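Contributing new complexes? Match this layout with flavin mononucleotide.
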Amino acid sequence: MSNVIKERKSVRTYQKKSLTEKDLLAVQKVVKAYNENKGFFGHEVKLQFFEKPFVDQESKIKIGTYGFITNPPSFIAGCVHNSFYGMVDYGYIFENMILALTEHKLSTVWIGGTFDRKTFDFMQKDHEIVPTITPVGYEDHDKSSKELDVREHIHADHREPFETLFFDDSLEKPLSESHQLAKILEYVRLAPSADNKQPWRVLVKRNNIHFYLHRTLAYQESLDFDVQAIDMGISLSHFIKGLEEQKMTYKVTNDYINVDLPELEYAFTVKLS
Ligand SMILES: Cc1cc2nc3c(=O)[nH]c(=O)nc-3n(C[C@H](O)[C@H](O)[C@H](O)COP(=O)(O)O)c2cc1C
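Output block (do not edit by hand):
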């Protein structure tokens, strides 16, 4: 099991401490490596690092998080085309970046709902949006009571049982935990998602692994972008990490037809070769 996937968790309470010189360089390097990368569906993700918790250092315009985040030393924001597959690509690249930061022992949390998106208008062109940001810093193990409340409210440590997420050949048949892809799918199970809804459902049909979205409709009224498409991109990030660890080769497509299932929305297919 990849340690980085096990180690990553959302951190909302940070030590009152700026990034060390070494970590500052590491963050800059990670952001540079993922900035302007394109996902599997062709959308470029723009990333920007804010060394202090201000979008404008001179006039000290703060990156608002409505009090959920305590002592964030710095932030990263991302920007992408506002469409379903734009968000899938975004989730994939932003999560790859988060895992790279976790490897450097830096803490993060995906923030999609609780910040003032207008502050980032300057990053967005037509049809683009800044869907999420993340603080970057050092975890304060003495968590704020706000953080404890949030984690409890969304059952942040809970994950749905394996057999309710992953299926073998048909939705009637849960995938066995001894299946050759089970370990890799466990990486998907541990992925973060908005409100910890874990909306991914995966149907394994021999070499074709179809990913579906089990959608929560309420988001469509409250957000201007498809936050659960981001969750799908995150699940893809974790799945691909597992495939690459096992040196498996693959292609990602969304051109399958006749793979519709009741109550699930088709997202994409990973085809093993
Ligand atoms: C796309 C996305 C948006 C999120 N937005 C928020 C947010 O606005 N505020 C927040 O406190 N946590 C947010 N989270 C963090 C989730 O609540 C968290 O990942 C989930 O509860 C699982 O906990 P863990 O990350 O510690 O494993 C978001 C996560 C994702 C993937």
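Reviewers usually confirm one structural detail per submission. For this one: Residues 9-10, 12, 68, 109-114, 132, 150, 154, 156, 192-196, 227, 230-231, 234 surround flavin mononucleotide (CB under 6 Å).
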